[in-house]
């Protein structure tokens, strides 16, 4: 959501258009439908974007009863794509809806669009006062120093990956099967190829093994930035015993009253303010956290390599040999204190 909004700001500036505050899509697996204003400070955002992009809270009355004209931006990458293909639709219909492309070439935007994107993404977006207060209290409650670990091993995540797993608890296998629907896992040689490409989420047990290979002490304080449904978590907590979660640190009533979006916002806040950040996946949240940490000059950011782990285990490495090889695979990024997938952040030079 944050990523798409950042891109939306840049695109609105490219098109010299007014940005209407977005509505979040309902996430079925979170079973909630909180809005933009439940997470972000709308008035602050609009104020901070003055001089960069025009922002409207609601549609003008002349458009309020109309459906937006949908424009497919899945293959749009740069300035001229939008000016040549999207601007005509905006001029004709005056009100369009877009979903920004995953492969944006933001680095090729003109300076004025870069400035708007950077302002929107890194300066204008802040949590609501009540949510930021809760996030600050949560940050204060975590023992310092600490590592924020974004661990993705929820049933829907595993089902989406189409990976085969063995040795999981029966309850985990049932949860994965229920989440699969028609999306069945790869089998046979295809399953091996898929796993060797690094497509399969690391289990908590595998994550703990890599952390030990990286010589992370087992008494390290770890904040688990993850959803409520992470499976096989004992594979991590049996090795790293100082693992805390927001559900433990927040009061029961506080936690129960929160939506999925606001819970994710807490994880994001803790992650960008942690002493170190590691992720077992390179998804949207990880990209946004890494970018914000780079912007703030916090380079203790590392993405654990699923591909290295699968390649090395495929070759038959186990125990000490596997730990040594995993250290070598991560050593340069670990010593540098930054993930290899972390791009240069052009925004730090533009504001």
Structure description:
By secondary structure, this protein is an alpha/beta fold. The protein has helices at 2-15, 36-39, 42-48, 61-64, 79-93, 111-124, 129-141, 155-161, 170-180, 188-196, 204-213, 234-237, 246-249, 252-256, 260-272, 284-295, 306-314, 319-336; strands spanning 19-20, 55-56, 69-71, 96-98, 146-150, 221-225, 243-244, 276-279, 301-303. Helix 17 (306-314) packs antiparallel against helix 18. The radius of gyration is 22 Å and the shape is globular. The model has no long low-confidence stretch (mean pLDDT 88).
Features:
351 residues, alpha/beta, five-stranded parallel beta sheet, 49% helix, globular
Provide a concise account of the structure shown.
The protein has helices at 2-15, 36-39, 42-48, 61-64, 79-93, 111-124, 129-141, 155-161, 170-180, 188-196, 204-213, 234-237, 246-249, 252-256, 260-272, 284-295, 306-314, 319-336, and strands at residues 19-20, 55-56, 69-71, 96-98, 146-150, 221-225, 243-244, 276-279, 301-303. It has 351 residues and is of the alpha/beta class. The strands form three sheets. It has a five-stranded parallel beta sheet with strand order 7-6-5-8-9.
């Amino acid at each position: 959501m944050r990523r798409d909004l950042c891109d939306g700001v840049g695109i609105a500036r490219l098109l010299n258009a007014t940005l209407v505050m977005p509505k979040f899509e309902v996430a079925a697996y979170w079973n909630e439908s909180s809005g933009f204003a439940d997470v972000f400070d709308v008035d602050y955002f609009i104020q901070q974007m003055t001089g960069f992009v025009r922002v409207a809270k609601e549609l003008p009355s002349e458009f309020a009863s109309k459906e937006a004209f949908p424009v497919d931006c899945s293959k749009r990458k740069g300035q001229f794509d939008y000016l040549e293909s999207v601007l005509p639709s905006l001029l004709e219909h005056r009100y369009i809806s877009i979903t920004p492309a995953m492969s944006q070439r933001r680095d090729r935007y003109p300076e004025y669009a870069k400035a708007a994107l950077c302002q929107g993404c890194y300066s204008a977006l802040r949590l609501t006062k009540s949510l930021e207060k809760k996030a600050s209290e949560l940050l204060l409650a975590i023992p310092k120093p600490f590592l924020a670990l974004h661990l993705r091993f929820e049933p829907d995540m595993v089902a989406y990956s189409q990976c085969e797993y063995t040795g999981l608890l029966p309850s985990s296998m049932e949860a994965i099967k229920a989440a699969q629907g028609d999306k069945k896992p790869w089998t046979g040689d295809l399953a091996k190829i898929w796993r060797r490409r690094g497509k399969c989420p690391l289990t908590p047990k595998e994550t703990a093994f890599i952390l030990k290979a990286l010589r992370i002490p087992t008494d390290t304080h770890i904040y688990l930035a993850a959803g409520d449904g992470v499976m096989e978590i004992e594979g991590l907590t049996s090795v790293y015993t100082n693992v805390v979660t927001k559900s433990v640190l927040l009061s029961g009533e506080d936690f129960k009253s929160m939506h999925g979006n606001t819970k994710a916002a807490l994880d994001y806040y803790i992650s960008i303010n942690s002493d170190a950040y590691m992720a077992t996946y390179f998804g949207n949240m990880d990209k946004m956290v890494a970018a914000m940490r780079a912007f703030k000059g916090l380079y203790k950011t590392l993405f654990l390599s699923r591909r290295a782990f699968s390649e090395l285990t495929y070759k038959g490495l186990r125990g000490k040999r596997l730990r040594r090889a995993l250290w070598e695979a991560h050593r340069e990024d670990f010593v540098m204190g930054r993930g290899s997938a972390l791009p240069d952040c052009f925004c730090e030079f533009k504001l």
